[in-house]
Amino acid sequence: MALAAKRHELILAAVRASGIIRLADLVERLGVTPVTIRRDVTLLADRGLVQRVHGGIALPNRAPVPQQTRATAPGPLGPMRTRAVVGMLVPSVEYYWPAVIQGAHTAVAATDGRLIMRSSGWDDPAEDRRQIDALLERGAQALLVAPATTGGPARELLRRLGTLARDLPVVLVERTPPKDLFTLPLDAATTAHALGAGLALRHLVTLGHDRVALITTRQSPTSTALRTGWQETVAALGLPPHDGLDIEIPSYGAAGWADAYDKVLDHSRDQGIGALFVHSDREAIGLIERGWERGITVPRDLAIVTYDDEIGAASDPPLTAVRPQKHRLGRLAAELALARLADVSGEWPVHRVELWPSVVVRESCGTLPTATAAA
């Protein structure tokens, strides 16, 4: 460990002295293997002490060379590049993401640009990387990406995106780097999902509910954030212990879903649970359907608030929902990329922008429909 610390001091001294230094020069100067130097550089870059450049490293936040003036159009974040090719990588083209894609397309089309979209599937860093390379080969001048963020391969991909961000805009969509990679110079546009869970729980508490179960399907960045917000709000409001009220169920329509949903409803009745916060609409509708079969009606016997609001208004009864601003999020991500692409000053700061969701009150929580309650 002492030898590694000494090498890190020497590497930092070398980059301070010259501003930029090649990895090959560090190998020769320190008399160690390229693998050792790459490992040292990775640690220093993750800590935000150096930044990667092609073939070497530099001091962090080193301003790029100003570029020539580019054709621009006015935008909410400043001038935006016109006629740009923007690549977008999403984990799915079904459920949730279509509205995000449409928002990005709206912003790019408004500047006479072209959006190229690829889908990679969930939690597959290798496929993420392949599709990003394909977007670059197709001429993408900026990237909007929702990659995997956990595990070794995902971390390597994020580091590569951080390197790419020195030369072209890279905006993470509904993703942020993990805490130990938080200094990667990646813009991000995200939804405050944890806050959305808090809004749902607070709304139910105002209606008299002090035991609210959290119902989710599978682990995802969204359900993890909702769980965090639910737990923090239970603690902040001083509610009775919610042990055993964090329940995972199969997706609506999956094998065994009806039996699993019946168990949730029976558990709620037996434990005096008066309200459910459900991710997402399909599962909430499934619980309502099974409730009718068991003589449990919503909202008379059980209040329900859903998260996402894809089809909540069409439920019977209509679902009170926390609604992420998906179209606006996609548009914002594209506007960030286009504004940075138009910047010629070399002083564009990293943006991490978070949108609040809204609460739409309908009948499933036991109140009459009202106007949207903006978060």
Topology:
Layout: H1 2-18, E1 20-22, H2 23-30, H3 34-46, E2 51-53, E3 56-58, E4 72-73, E5 80-81, E6 85-90, H4 97-110, E7 114-119, H5 125-137, E8 142-145, H6 152-164, E9 170-173, E10 187-191, H7 193-206, E11 212-216, H8 221-236, E12 246-248, H9 257-271, E13 275-278, H10 281-293, E14 303-307, E15 320-323, H11 326-342, E16 352-355, E17 358-360
Parallel strand pairs: 6-7, 6-8, 8-9, 9-10, 10-16, 11-12, 11-13, 13-14, 14-15
Antiparallel strand pairs: 1-3, 2-3, 4-5, 15-17
Helix pairs in contact: 2-3, 4-11, 7-8, 9-10
Summarize the structure.
With 375 residues, the chain is of the alpha/beta class. The chain contains eleven helices and 17 strands.
Throw out a few tags for this protein:
375 residues; alpha/beta; six-stranded parallel beta sheet; disordered C terminus
Explain what this protein looks like in three dimensions:
The chain is of the alpha/beta class. It has eleven helices and 17 strands. Strand 11 (212-216), helix 8 (221-236) and strand 12 form a beta-alpha-beta unit. Helix 2 (23-30) packs across helix 3. It is elongated.
Give the end-to-end Cα distance, rounded to a whole number of Å: 49 Å
β-strand percent reads 15-25%
Helix count, DSSP H or I runs of 4 or more residues: 11
Mean pLDDT: 89
| Overall geometric form | elongated
Strands of the widest sheet, in order across it, are 7-6-8-9-10-16
Order of helices and strands: HEHHEEEEEHEHEHEEHEHEHEHEEHEE
Low-confidence spans: pLDDT under 50, at least 5 residues?
62-68, 369-375
